[in-house]
Amino acid sequence: MGDHSDGIPAGSDAVARAGLNEVEKFQDPGLPPHRKRLADTDPRAAQRAERQVAFLFGISVVGTLLFFFGYFFIRLDDTIATLRLQNILLGLGTAFAMLGIGTGIVHWARALMPDHEVSEERHELRSEADREAAVKIVDDIVEETGIKRRPLIRNTLLGAVALAPFPAIVMFRDLGPLPGNALRHTMWDKGTRLVRDPTGTPIMASDVTLGSVFHVIPDGLNDLKEGKLEEKAKAVVLLMRLEPSLLHPSKGREDWGYEGIVAYSKICTHVGCPVALYEQQTHHLLCPCHQSTFDLTQECKVIFGPANRPLPQLPISIDSEGYLVAQSDFHEPVGPSFWERG
């Protein structure tokens, strides 16, 4: 029987005991031997790789020019073929512009830039000598890329990088004016009739029964030749009728409806999705995108979901013929709350 005073059998090899055996340190195998590429040993292969990189950057330039051609010189008409042609040119132009730069840089790094592995310790940069050493490292990296020795690559890269952002700038500029101003005014005006979407037929107060809902646009919108979709996106409203006793208008809004008929913007104040679901029993309007819920009896106050502003109300009345008309435009910007100003 062995000595059990320390709780470990003296003759057991099941547990390694510190200090009894010297553990052999793991030997650093070092870096694997460097294998030179063809471009490292053959000047003609290096020149060929340089031309390939320049060709890829040239493709990027051509792609950008193709985008500009499709955007500025393809005039849209009422045919699907013209729209399809422009979309193809815009898509291919953007793809070639980005793909040319990306593949060109990757091929440049793989074929021409130094690929040997370096291992060095990292030290804090404190002294001026260390800063100078850091600057020298950056200069060495620039020198290793060969961009100073290869003007063909440098010039084509600069051309591709200079032109590549322009398609994005053009597309963002084409989005139109700032929404904060564009969404402040719609086609609704004093005396504008409420008409059904999409037929454009006017609506009489007697047509709106209790519990019914109408998707409404301003009269004259269907006659627009340009900007029809933009105006509709801003002006479309939901028209509903409740028992007048269920409505709780705030001060100054007592006459914004007519005998329980009220109209509210259809654009959700969260991110602008169309509010298209009406629960007749609860008098709630629901946005299907993120489940924002608005209480129609409380001037479309938000009672659930991410929206933080009620739906704007369109003041309405009737004309001499009994048709529903707007009293004015919306009194606040429609759409998402982050575009609201003032």
TrEMBL record:
Name of the protein in its database record: Cytochrome bc1 complex Rieske iron-sulfur subunit
Keywords noted in UniProt: 2Fe-2S, Cell membrane, Disulfide bond, Electron transport, Iron, Iron-sulfur, Membrane, Metal-binding, Oxidoreductase, Respiratory chain, Transmembrane, Transmembrane helix, Transport
TM regions (residue ranges): 53-74, 86-109
Location relative to the cell: Cell membrane
Record membrane topology: Multi-pass membrane protein
Species whose genome carries this gene: Arthrobacter terrae
GO molecular function (one): metal ion binding
Entry GO CC: plasma membrane
Family: Belongs to the Rieske iron-sulfur protein family.
Residue ranges annotated for the Rieske domain, each copy included: 221-325
Function: Iron-sulfur subunit of the cytochrome bc1 complex, an essential component of the respiratory electron transport chain required for ATP synthesis. The bc1 complex catalyzes the oxidation of menaquinol and the reduction of cytochrome c in the respiratory chain. The bc1 complex operates through a Q-cycle mechanism that couples electron transfer to generation of the proton gradient that drives ATP synthesis.
Claim: Transport is one of the keywords in the record: yes
Domain of life of the source: Bacteria
Pfam families, per the entry: QcrA_N, Rieske
